[in-house]
Amino acid sequence: MTVPVVHGAPGNAVARVRWAVADGWTITLRDLAHWARKPAQVVVGLLFPVMIVLMFGYLFGGGMAIPGGGDYREFLMPGMFAMTMVFGIETTFTAVSTDITRGVTDRFRSMPMAPSAVVTGRATADMLNSVVGLAVMMACGLAVGWRWHHGLGAALAAAGLLLLLRFALLWAGVCLALVIRSPEAVMAVQILVWPLGFLSNVFASPATMPGWLGTLVEWNPLSATVSAARELFGNPGFGGDSWAAQHATLMAVAWPLLALAVFFPLSVRLYHRLSR
User: Fold this and answer.
1) N or C end: fewer C-beta atoms under 10 angstroms in the chain?
2) Separation between Cα atoms, residue 114 and residue 188, nearest integer Å
3) Mind spelling out the 3-state secondary structure of 265-276?
4) Residue 5: its pLDDT value, please?
5) What is the pLDDT of residue 138?
6) HSE-up of 19 (CA within 13 Å, CB side)?
7) Where is the ABC transmembrane type-2 domain (predicted)?
C-alpha cells in the first residue's frame, strides 16, 4: 500500500510567499472559471445597478434638487459607483458560504496548499469582478451624461477610493460568511447592506433630511467615499459644514482602513477555526 506524502510549507520566507501567491492565484482562476460557466448570473449582477441608475436618473431625477445647483445625474453617478461596491458583499457572502456548506473549503484545507490561498484567492477574484463592475457603471454614466472634470489623475484617485471601499467590505462579507455559513442567509446580509446604502448621501443631500438623520448620513462610511469621489470627479455635491463633510477624503481612507483592521484578521482567525 502506498501512502501519499504531504509536503509542508517551504522553509524559506521568500519561497513561502511565492507558494501562497501561486496557490491563491489558482483559487482565483477557479472562481473566475465558475463565473465563466454562469454568464447569465454575472450579466444580471452587472445590469442591476444600471437599472437603478436609469430609474433614479430619469424617473425620479426631475424631482430632485441639489443644494448649489447642478445636474442630478452627475450628482447621482459617484453614489451609484459606491453602491455597486457595497452590493458586492452579497456576492462574496454567497460564494464563501456555499463553498463551506458543500465541503469545498474543508477539501481545500486538507490539501498541501498555502493556508491563506482560499481567502486571498476569493478576494482577488471578487476585486477583479469589482473592477469590471465599476468599468461598466462608468460606461453607463458616460452614456447618461456623467463626466469627470478634474483630469484623469483625479478620476483614477476617485476610482481607487471606491475600490478601497470594496476591498474593505469584501472582508466583511468573508467574515459574515464564515460566521453564518449558510447561503440562504443572504437575505439577512441584505438587511445589513441596504440600510448602509440608502442611509447615505447617494440619492439625496443630508441638508434635505431631519437634523439627526442628516448627521447619521454624514458619518456613514459610504457617504465619505461618495463625497470624496464627487469632489475628485468634479461632480455636484452637497458640501456641508460638519467635520465629516469637510474631511470627506480623509474619512474615505480612514473608514475602509478601520474596517480592514477589524475584519481581515477576524476572517483569517475564523477560517483557521472552521474545523475545530
Assistant:
1) N
2) 31
3) HHHHHHHHCCCC
4) 41
5) 92
6) 15
7) 40-274
Model pTM?
Answer: 0.86
Helices 248-272 and 151-180: crossing angle in degrees, nearest 10, is 30
Helices (H) and strands (E) counted in the chain, each on its own, are 11, 0
- Count of all residues that appear for the chain in the document: 276
The C-alpha atoms of residue 84 and residue 239 are separated, in whole angstroms, by: 23
Kindly state the cell numbers that stand for 54: 436609469
Measured distance CA(74)–CA(235) in Å, rounded: 6
From CA 89, how far away is CA 267, in angstroms rounded? 14
Integer Cα distance of 171 and 174 in angstroms: 5
Amino acid at 12: N
* pLDDT tens figures, 47-84: 888 888 888 777 766 666 676 667 888 888 999 999 98
Output the nine-digit C-alpha cell for 62.
426631475
- Rounded average pLDDT per 10-residue block, the chain, 276 residues: 46 72 85 81 79 78 67 87 88 84 80 79 89 91 90 94 94 88 77 82 81 86 93 84 86 95 89 70
